[in-house]
């Protein structure tokens, strides 16, 4: 726990000194304005909730594939991963703490989108089931932390992880139905959506904004959490395997 | 002029070596190109959700052209990298102008963007049942290239401003192309925005060129299409002139205050 808290503290300090980590907060308003303008121009107020939730979830994912993943890949690039490997404490809790710090900021895009919608377009969706909404958001942040650890460890396997980092945006947004529900995707793609926690979270959050009762809340929340746990465990195992492989192959540098 | 073209050829060759060290054709096709194609699909799917074939067409064509702007504006990052490499002192001392090197720094990325947009234009309309007038539409890639060149000049201008604030390069890059994607008629008509904002987009790249491409695909007159493309060229030329002035000013200022560093 101490190492986890240390990671949290270190990351907050890093983000304070390097505003690049907050890039998502600068780009997200444009995504929100684009999506809101499209649904309002089409006179589809029923889809305003989609246009609000999509940028929020895309922002959460953006923090994960941007700053959270770079916690590990950036250390590898700058040569600070190696001294960490030599330190007596385990690296995983430190990285998990640093990633959790980034993901803690992942809820800001939600507020940013709400603010923009109200100020620029004079619309804000009504959330009829706020507890469901916030539970889904909290589960998403947790699941995103686990998924980030998995992505970061996987990107360490590549010499040029940035290429794959770029790729992990719109394909996930389409597959997870953050804006357009999965039912609009071609039939063969739909089963894969169930493997992305964002698809469960987006559906649940959209349902929380409709006046009718939300079905199977517990099971759907559980799906988000379970996928997050899978990411967390897989990320931890993969990170350990990648670091062990680097030691065994003698590819640990001293920079 | 011939000397300048030779410098441009060498600068482009150097930029290509850097680009090909980052991307192989496989990583370009399977990560970058496929991501851009899926980005265009994301917006076309919104049109499908809206239940309107016209919206599908508007969003698909708009985003097929707009994804090129991402690559075109990467010149913002590349010029900052060039400055960081510490080559400016040598260029200032050399008889050729540093302008050619800086303005040509992102040409491989521009080519990548035009190629990606062209492939998207050829591949995606059939998937979304968007009608395209073949074979006349074969000229659309040329129009995309005109819009790309204009976006590139705009990116170069932003780059000339960002050179003094290198830590802002990522923010500047993202805001540059997102501004075009948001307000220049990519996802909603420019008339959706307040008049003052609409007027502002007329000096931005993309707005006129994309309008010309839409007019062409809708069977508009050649005068309307060529008029739009002509305005796009004028807008690009204006941004180019400002970019050239910005890069010249950078050197003049560096000479005056001794901030042109040699080496990294």
TrEMBL record, chain A:
Its main location: membrane. InterPro entries: ABC2_TM, Nod_factor_ABC_transporter. It holds the Pfam family ABC2_membrane. Keywords: Membrane, Transmembrane, Transmembrane helix. The chain crosses the membrane at residues 21-40, 52-73, 94-111, 131-155, 167-185, 221-243. The keyword Ubl conjugation does not apply. Residues 4-207 form the ABC-2 type transporter transmembrane domain. It is a multi-pass membrane protein. It comes from the Bacteria. GO terms for cellular component: membrane. The keyword Membrane applies. It is found in: Membrane. PANTHER family: ABC-TYPE MULTIDRUG TRANSPORT SYSTEM, PERMEASE COMPONENT, NODULATION PROTEIN J. This is ABC-2 type transporter transmembrane domain-containing protein. It comes from Saccharothrix coeruleofusca.
TrEMBL record, chain B:
Coiled coil: none annotated. The keyword Transmembrane helix applies. Its main location: membrane. Residues 22-215 form the ABC-2 type transporter transmembrane domain. Keywords: Membrane, Transmembrane, Transmembrane helix. GO terms for molecular function: ABC-type transporter activity. The chain crosses the membrane at residues 58-78, 84-103, 110-128, 140-163, 170-190, 224-247. The lineage of its organism: Bacteria, Bacillati, Actinomycetota, Actinomycetes, Pseudonocardiales. This is ABC-2 type transporter transmembrane domain-containing protein. One of its GO terms (cellular component) is membrane.
């Amino acid at each position: 726990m101490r190492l986890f808290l240390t990671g949290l503290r270190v990351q907050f300090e890093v983000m304070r000194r390097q505003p690049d980590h907050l890039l998502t907060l600068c780009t997200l308003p444009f995504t929100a304005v684009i999506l809101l303008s499209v649904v309002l121009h089409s006179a589809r107020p029923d889809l305003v909730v989609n246009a609000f939730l999509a940028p929020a979830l895309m922002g959460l994912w953006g923090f994960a594939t941007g700053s959270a993943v770079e916690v590990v890949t950036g250390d590898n690039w700058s040569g600070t991963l190696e001294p960490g490997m030599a330190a007596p404490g385990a690296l995983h809790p430190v990285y998990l703490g640093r990633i959790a710090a980034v993901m803690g900021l992942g809820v800001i895009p939600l507020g940013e989108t709400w603010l923009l919608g109200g100020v620029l377009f004079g619309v804000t969706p009504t959330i009829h089931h706020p507890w469901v909404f916030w539970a889904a958001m909290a589960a998403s942040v947790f699941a995103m932390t686990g998924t980030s650890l998995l992505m970061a460890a996987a990107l360490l396997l590549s010499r040029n992880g940035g290429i794959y980092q770029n790729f992990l945006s719109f394909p996930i947004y389409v597959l997870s139905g953050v804006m357009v529900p999965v039912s609009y995707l071609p039939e063969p793609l739909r089963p894969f959506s169930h493997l992305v926690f964002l698809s469960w979270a987006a559906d649940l959050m959209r349902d929380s904004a409709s006046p009718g009762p939300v079905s199977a809340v517990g099971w759907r929340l559980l799906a988000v959490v379970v996928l997050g746990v899978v990411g967390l465990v897989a990320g931890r195992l993969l990170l350990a395997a990648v670091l062990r492989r680097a030691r065994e192959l003698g590819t640990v540098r001293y920079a | 002029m011939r000397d300048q073209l030779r410098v441009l050829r060498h600068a482009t060759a150097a930029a290509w070596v850097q680009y090909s060290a980052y991307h192989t054709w496989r990583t370009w096709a399977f990560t970058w190109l496929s991501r851009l194609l899926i980005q265009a699909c994301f917006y076309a799917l919104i049109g499908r959700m809206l239940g309107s074939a016209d919206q599908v067409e508007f969003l698909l064509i708009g985003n097929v052209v707009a994804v090129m702007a991402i690559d075109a504006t990467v010149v913002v990052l590349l010029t900052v990298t060039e400055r960081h490499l510490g080559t400016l002192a040598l260029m200032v001392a050399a008889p050729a102008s540093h302008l050619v090197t800086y303005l040509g720094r992102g040409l491989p990325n521009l080519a990548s963007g035009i190629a990606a947009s062209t492939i998207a234009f050829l591949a995606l309309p059939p998937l979304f049942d968007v009608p395209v007038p073949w074979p006349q539409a074969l000229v659309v890639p040329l129009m995309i290239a005109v819009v790309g060149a204009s976006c590139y000049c705009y990116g170069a201008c932003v780059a000339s401003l960002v050179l003094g604030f290198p830590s802002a390069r990522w923010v500047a890059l993202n805001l540059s192309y997102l501004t075009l994607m948001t307000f220049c008629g990519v996802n909603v008509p420019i008339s959706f925005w307040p008049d003052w904002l609409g007027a502002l987009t007329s000096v931005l790249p993309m707005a006129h060129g994309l309008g010309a491409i839409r007019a062409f695909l809708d069977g508009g007159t050649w005068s309307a299409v060529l008029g739009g493309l002509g305005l796009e060229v004028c807008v690009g030329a204006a941004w180019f002139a400002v970019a050239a002035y910005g890069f010249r000013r950078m050197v003049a200022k560096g000479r005056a205050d001794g901030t042109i560093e040699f080496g990294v």
